Request: fold
Amino acid sequence: MSIRIEARNLTKRYGETRAVDDLTFTVEPGSVTGFLGPNGAGKTTTMRMILGLDAPTSGSVTVGGRRYADLPSPMRVVGALLDARAVHPGRTAYDHLLCLAQTNNLPSRRIDEVLATVGLTEVARRRAGRFSLGMSQRLGIAAALLGDPPVLMFDEPVNGLDPEGIRWIRQLIRGFAAEGRTVLVSSHLMSEMALTADRLVVIGAGRLIADRWLDDVIGPDDVRGVRVRAADPDAVAALLTTSGGLVTPEPDGSLLVTGLDGARIGALTARHALPLSELIPQRPSLEEAFMELTRDSVQFAARDGGDR
Reply:
């Protein structure tokens, strides 16, 4: 079942403050949509409106053409993790999921299934108040999966996870999208989003800044030039400069070359018997692209050089 999340002219005001301002975007099935923005951009408010936890001041947001509140069995349609600590601390992991299953008319067999999926089978009878943040994240993901929904939403899902856990959640999320599910993920970790997301919705000060495929946001491979490392960097620099390249020595001894692509550099240095140990196109990072997109929308910015 293919279901879209559709926000149309979505606006949320708190007094004179517009937390979300005329926001329009669509989250499509079959890919991971990264939801990005600086602190205070309105990401969590938007996700809360998708889930019916906050009411829009104007505009609309629907899941499969319906408001979340109008879904007959919401957990069978949307699974969400917004706050991993929103669990009664005296309740065990199993009992927390049992309560959700019983109040949402879900089969109890799903409890053991989702606990196994997130790796919490061995601690199913431990009280949630004794869980680490990483374990709480896994329990929150288990709750999101309980209804086996076609739509999944995760707000900062890698918080508190170790490297193995981060890799696991990345593979899990991408696996959901490969199954045709609709996946929306909010995160401040640009390096992780670059590995996880297919498409990006970027907002700032509540407004849409970009709604593009990841590759379109980051840009082509040759934007930043080519990094070259050579046994004789001076001779290579001279050769590439006379061939029309702009060569900038880097502090680590490598050369950053613009104006020539990797194939041309390789051919020139091979012809002149100048061996290279490194020849890597320098692609802009998602972090750099994000900072450029949102530089006019940062609400809390620190000055360089400390307090003055």
User: Anything to note?
Assistant: Residues 17 and 205 are 10 Å apart (CA to CA). The two ends are 57 Å apart (CA to CA). Confidence is low (pLDDT under 50) at residues 300-308. The longest strand covers residues 17-27.
